[in-house]
Amino acid sequence: MTRPSQDTGRAPTDAAPSAPAPVVTGTPGSFARGVLDKRHPALIERVRRATPYPPEQRRALDALLDEITKGSIERLADDEPGADLWRDEPYYGQRWADVPFLWAESFFYRKLLAALGHFAPGPWLGIDPFAPFKNAELAGSKVDDELSALDRLPDLPPDEQDRTLLLSSLWGNRADLGFQLSAGEAGLGDRVQGLVADDSAALWDILAAGVTGGPGEPGGPSSPGKVCLVADNAGPELLPDLVLADHLLATGRADSVVLHLKPYPYYVSDATTTDTLACLDRLTAASGRAAAVGARLRDALGAGRLVLRSHPFSCAPHGYDRMPADLREDFASAALTVMKGDLNYRRLVGDRHWPATTPFAEATAYFPGPVAALRTLKCDVVTGLTPGTLAELDAGTESWRTSGTHALIQVRP
């Protein structure tokens, strides 16, 4: 069992002193306020119904619900494993609505696990309260359709294979790989329409640099290096990430892929090692190309070309500008770090009220190496848009920042 933690020693922050104010939970009408008022209470009830927890855990869930809806932020109990790691946080005694959104969300999930005895010795130690949701999604018939669609991938030219697998990883379980492959250019076009920023050419250029030539040897052979892939959700959204990892290894874009996972359940569907192994089983139990991908990934794990990593900072209530030195070194040594999903994006650029036209490179200037973000938009934070794109999106009636209907691929070389 990984020790519960939110930090392991911080490097000095490189956030710009002029960075805008953080997103706060309680702004009326905001996405963050909706999470506090609706999503978290609904999740407590959903967890309660999914697993037959005994009376002690159910009372603890009642107390947590009462705290987030009526009370102020309370510390973890002194006897809670890992409570000392949260002791110096500055927001205790304040209303949940008055603190930074990123911190409030993170602490809510930590308190939810504490209420369920996830870290305490006993029969509920290590039980994932979100496993019923993850397992149901992974077992769904739509996953069978998606995996069988991989058999048609070789019919595409190599550059379209690259594009299709990248978009599948970007859109997660909304990727509809089968539709893309059967509809050809029309299918890809439908997905591209939702992109508010697309630096995919720069992403492939970075990955090609190690294959086509190294420093001082233009066009000469060199090692493609390591790619860090920081995962987001489990189940149907992790499957295309694993397929993309296999593609990078098989096409020589990466010598190794380091898949960064959560050390314990976090944010409902975030991927852990257990979830990754379940996805590998799902792949290898399929037929055709999916089974071959699963077999190659299992071999890559055994050979050290696919590495699973779960750093405690992955569950921190802070941005990556406060990452500890060992994690910074890991990212610095990668040819490219790919950050998947909305939460990782918030932690990468900072969960702040950035003007949407703030350059992505400016918001990520502290990051120790080349970094890419693959993200569907499900919260208010966004950077790197052109003024024209922003004006067009704001002129629409849709809540484009939070609806999940838009996405971005952003790269800082």
Automatic annotation (TrEMBL):
Membership in a protein family: Belongs to the damage-control phosphatase family. Sugar phosphate phosphatase III subfamily.
Required co-factors: Mn(2+)
Tagged with keyword Cell cycle: no
Coiled coil: none
Translocase recorded as keyword: no
Chain intervals with Low complexity compositional bias: 11-28
UniProt-listed Pfam families: ARMT1-like_dom
Reactions accelerated catalytically: beta-D-fructose 1-phosphate + H2O = D-fructose + phosphate; beta-D-fructose 6-phosphate = dihydroxyacetone + D-glyceraldehyde 3-phosphate
Entry protein name: Damage-control phosphatase ARMT1-like metal-binding domain-containing protein
Domain of life: Bacteria
Biological process terms in GO annotation: DNA damage response
Region (Disordered): 1-34
InterPro entries in the record: ARMT-1-like_metal-bd_sf, ARMT1, ARMT1-like_metal-bd
Domain Damage-control phosphatase ARMT1-like metal-binding: 36-388
GO function term, MF aspect, one: metal ion binding
Keywords: Hydrolase, Manganese, Metal-binding
